[in-house]
Amino acid sequence: MTSLAQLTLLLVVLTDFAVLATSRLSACIRAIAFQGLLLGILPLLVHADVSVHAVGLAAGTAIIKAGILPWFLRRAIREAAVRREVEPLVGYMASTLLGSAALAIAFAVAHALPLHLVETDLLVPVALVTVMIGLIILITRTKAVTQVVGYLMLENGIYLFGLTQSERVPFLVEIGVLLDVFVGVFIMGIVVFHINREFDSISAARLTALRE
Amino acid sequence: MPNDTTSAVIALAITLIGAPIIPGLAARTKAMMTGRRGSPIWQLYADLAKLGRRGVVYSTVTTWVFRLAPIVVLVATCVAASLVPLDGRKALLRFSGDAIAFAYLLALGRFATVLAALDTGSSFEGMGASREVTFASVVEPGVFVGLATLGVIARDSSLSVMLGGTALRTASAATAPSLVMVAMSLFALVLAECARVPVDDPATHLELTMVHEVMILDTSGPDLAMMLYANALKLGVFSAIIVDVLIAAPRAAGWVGAATGIAILLGGFAVVGIGIGIVESVMARLRLPKVPLYIAGGGALALFGLILVLR
After folding, report:
1. What does the pLDDT look like over A99-136, one tens digit per residue?
2. Nearest alpha-carbon partner for B204 in B129, B135, B280
3. What's the total number of domains in chain B?
4. Using an 8 Å Cβ cutoff, are A17 and A99 in contact?
5. Which residues in B lie closer than 8 A to residue A103 (C-beta atoms)?
6. CB of B248 within 8 A of CB of B70?
7. Do the Cβ atoms of B300 and A99 come within 8 Å?
8. pTM for the structure as a whole
9. Residue B227 to residue B205: CA distance in whole angstroms
10. CA nearest A122 in B: which residue?
11. Separation CA A181–CA A179 (nearest Å)
12. Angle between helices B254-282 and B172-193 (to 10 degrees)
């Protein structure tokens, strides 16, 4: 693995922590978009041979993860007029500590996994930590948009894990990209659903107050 | 051929003389980025000279603790500086475990400042002291994790071996990522340690928001000069550590190596000074409850570096 790939993987971990520690939603989305861009570049760096297939995969990933999905999320926060995560279930400080613990666990566990790793020794722990931090965000945040960001991060981790296998099973990675499209639909559904429900519940509360 | 002691003394002297340029560089960078002319780079020298000529006023409620504090701070910082291999070769003082002594000397200086602040009996200074201690309790673990990372790479607990030895230089291909993490973490923590912008604003004089400045409100004259100088010196020492961590090229023996070391040291002053100026220009001071999170983030970077080395 080249040092450029290593650097990219480290930046992926840093974006994980950036999302974990920021309360501002637009900053979260910017971080996850940057992570998407990094993931787009990674396949080209990890595998030495640059084929049409690899370039296509990289371009597709970058366009979906760094372009379309962040654009969609930005639209969602603009329309819902939410700016920051107000009440996370676990505080930012505790989340950062949890994230650090996840980092330690990921690096400890990565070596115990029965994988035939040739040159991707940083790839597996980074994939694991991205999955775990994604899970932490998914569990501890209350805003729908942040949860979607957490889900995206979880999916990014799975994509990274797929990269370790992609030379043998390129199909897996393609499935990953397809999953992205699914996520896009998922975001649409969840955001619209949550916002609708939020506004409905507010108006419902008002209605009951009027009645009493 | 200069031996280790001579070159260490020269490097220490240059740090002692040159450190006050760093806050000046930071202020100048900030002024230039905001379109002002700004104060001269050697402003702190002028301030120190002015304060040195003035008399001291002691509040009647203060005791010897208050009078002792500036001396303790200055001496502790100077000794800490002499433990660090400033030119990337050998430090003036070196023994096994001096990295821990280094961290605790800085902590001793902070302890003296806090005691002096409490000794004045002013509620504002007490508030500043409580904030300083709160932040320090998060900064110190981060610094320790960073030093531990260097220690694991060098397999030694002396700063001279960690930063001046060959361990960092030879293993650079495998350890480069974690060294970068440690350097980033140290830069983030220095801003907290030396009371710079995301944590504390040296330019503000509103008691409610000050942290470090409020603790030395009652300090005056030469005492204040000592406090300000010690803070600048701390910046100088940390910038030396940061460039030592980042620049992996081994320092040659002889005069050429010594000169290179000094040049790198001065370059480090410039980089850190300008870096602080840029940070101060592009971001505002964080809200107080956010500060521990920022510092913990800096510590997490160092922890990441440690994990990368240990794996």
Report:
1. 989 988 988 888 777 776 555 578 888 999 999 999 99
2. B280
3. 1
4. yes
5. 300, 303-304, 307
6. no
7. yes
8. 0.84
9. 17
10. B308
11. 5
12. 50
CA atoms within 13 A on the CB side of A130: 31
Total residue length of chain B:
311
Category of B295 on φ-ψ map: left (φ > 0), alpha (ψ -120 to 50) or beta: alpha
Touching check for B135 and chain A: CB below 8 Å? no
Cα–Cα distance between B264 and B172 in angstroms, integer? 18
Residue pair B130/B137 in contact (Cβ under 8 Å)? The answer is: no
Query: Both tokens of residue B296?
Result: 């913990």
- A128 reaches B (C-beta below 8 A): no
Please report the DSSP string for B164-206 in residue order: HSSHHHHTHHHHHHHHHHHHHHHHHHHHHHTT-TTT--TT---
Residues B24, B274: Cα–Cα separation, whole Å: 9
* pLDDT, tens digit (0-9, with 9 covering 90-100), for A41-96: 888 887 766 677 777 777 877 887 888 788 877 877 777 666 666 677 788 888 88
d(C-alpha B233, C-alpha B81), whole Å: 8
**Residue A44 in tokens:** 């080209």
CA atoms of A145 and A44, how far apart (whole Å):
30
Structure tokens that stand for A186 in this block: 């998922």
Q: How many CA atoms lie within 13 A of B6 on its CB side?
A: 9
Q: How many domains does chain A have?
A: 1
> A3-21 and B291-310 helices cross at what angle (nearest 10)?
150
Q: Radius of gyration of chain A from Cα atoms?
A: 19
Question: What is the domain range of residue B166?
Answer: 4-310
Q: For residue A179, what are the CA distances in angstroms to A64, A154, A208, B286?
A: 11, 12, 42, 39
Helix B64-83 / helix B98-119 crossing angle, nearest 10 deg: 160
Residue ranges making up the domain that contains A47: 3-211
- Per residue in A162-172, pLDDT tens? 777 666 556 66
